[in-house]
Design a protein that fits this description.
By secondary structure, the protein is α/β, with parallel strands linked by helices. The protein contains 10 helices and 14 strands. The protein has an 8-stranded mixed β-sheet with strand order 5-4-3-2-1-12-13-14, with helices on both faces. Strands 8-7-6-9-11-10 form a 6-stranded mixed β-sheet, with helices on both faces. Helix 1 links the parallel strand 1 and strand 2. Helix 1 packs parallel to helix 10.
Length: 270
């Protein structure tokens, strides 16, 4: 029996960088809870953005944020992976050499950028991030950082993988989170690792877990769940890794799968 459901956000529940969620998911999460099933959102987003997205039910779910660097509920942080400061600063200097790219740094509660670039406005207005403009990171950054993201308008993966990834891949996990984003965290700080920590905390096995994803940074999440779903609009690598294929994001594929699960659970109760 399924006891835990983990879901990626961008590309799975909402179009990348928006808050355009299928409102039925709120009632679905409430009904799942009535059946004793826990829901966890798993995203590259920060907690503030996710809590706004799940507004009506945000106190009823768990959060895997910043691509797995933080595991928490609405009030309490259970696990947090902070990037070593000298390594972070060296990576920042390297990232500044990448053509037409921008950098975002994520702390527990706040994200940071150096100036009011298009990336800043998109994160603030579309993702609804808590984000601050710091100026020079090396001079002004005081917060602990759990994730670094490199942004490019449409080609982040290819640009970062040309030489940045080969240099840093032994120190960090560098994964694509959409055509605009490459996320950098410690190797043991991915979505799958955080999901396994939550499973252990709740006493729930992988066989009792369902997960949904669409992109490379969701591979660990799917591997930690026996009932894994790739959204129909997912990358081919994700479709090959998943046990099932759900309808596409435009068809609200995850909601439809969960409504079918609830229909089966309701029938069992009757």
């Amino acid at each position: 029996m399924i006891k835990l459901i983990a879901s990626d956000i961008d590309g799975t529940l909402v179009p990348d960088g928006t808050h355009e969620i299928d409102k039925r998911i709120y009632d679905v999460i409430r009904r799942l809870k009535d059946h004793g099933i826990t829901f966890v959102g798993a995203s590259g987003r920060q907690f503030a953005s996710m809590a706004k997205l799940f507004g009506p039910v945000n106190k009823d779910i768990y959060y895997i944020t910043d691509n797995g660097s933080i595991l928490r509920d609405y009030k309490e942080v259970y696990n947090m992976n902070v990037i070593d400061r000298p390594l972070l600063m060296e990576m920042i200097r390297d990232a500044k050499r990448l053509h037409d790219c921008d950098i975002m740094l994520c702390g527990k509660d706040t994200a940071y950028c150096e100036d009011k670039s298009p990336m800043f406005y998109w994160l603030r207005d579309s993702y609804r991030f808590n984000i601050q403009v710091l100026g020079d990171f090396e001079k002004n950054l005081n917060d602990d950082i759990v994730k670094m993201s490199i942004y490019h308008v449409d080609n982040a993966e290819n640009i970062v993988n040309e030489w940045f990834t080969p240099k840093w891949k032994d120190e960090f996990k560098i994964t694509c989170a959409g055509i605009m984003w490459m996320d950098i965290v410690y190797p043991d700080a991915d979505k799958g690792s955080s999901l396994r920590i939550l499973q252990k905390r709740l006493g729930i096995s992988p066989e009792e877990t369902m997960a949904f994803g669409d992109n490379i940074n969701d591979l660990g999440l799917l591997e930690a769940a026996s009932e894994s779903y790739a959204i129909g609009s997912a990358r081919e690598e994700i479709k090959k890794a998943a046990k099932h294929i759900a309808p596409t994001l435009k068809e609200n594929g995850e909601t439809e799968v969960l409504l079918k699960l609830l229909e089966e659970l309701d029938a069992q109760v009757k």
